[in-house]
Amino acid sequence: SSRFGERHMSSKNVYRSNAENCLRMAQTTGSDHDKPFWLNLAQSWLQLAEHSARSGAEVETSETRAGADSH
């Protein structure tokens, strides 16, 4: 059984999904202070996805997506 927000996918896809969530947060935040944080975090997730793709680390993983409620 999996918790809400948890998906079985490759680590590269988890990283990209997290990046998309961070970009969405950057677009919807009402705070000019928070926007750079979300954009930098999205960039970090994308760099991890690229590294994962280059290294061939396509292992199946069960990760909680960024911003998902894990309770």
Shape: elongated
Question: Which range does the strand content fall in?
Answer: 5-15%
- Uncertain regions: pLDDT < 50 for 5+ in a row? none
Described by strand count, sense and barrel closure, the largest sheet is: 2 strands, antiparallel
The ordered string of helix (H) and strand (E) elements is EHHE
Total number of helical segments?
A: 2
Strand order across the largest sheet = 1-2
> Which class of secondary structure composition applies to the elements?
alpha+beta
Highlighted features:
71 residues, 55% helix, 14% strand, single chain, 2 strands, 2 helices
Q: What does this 3D model show about the protein?
A:
This protein is of the alpha+beta class and 71 residues long. The protein is 55% helix and 14% strand. It has two helices and two strands, in the order βααβ. It has helices spanning 11-28, 35-55; strands at 6-10, 60-64. The chain has a two-stranded antiparallel ribbon with strand order 1-2. Helix 1 packs antiparallel against helix 2 (35-55). The longest helix is centred in the middle third of the chain and has 21 residues, at 35-55. The radius of gyration is 13 Å and the shape is elongated.
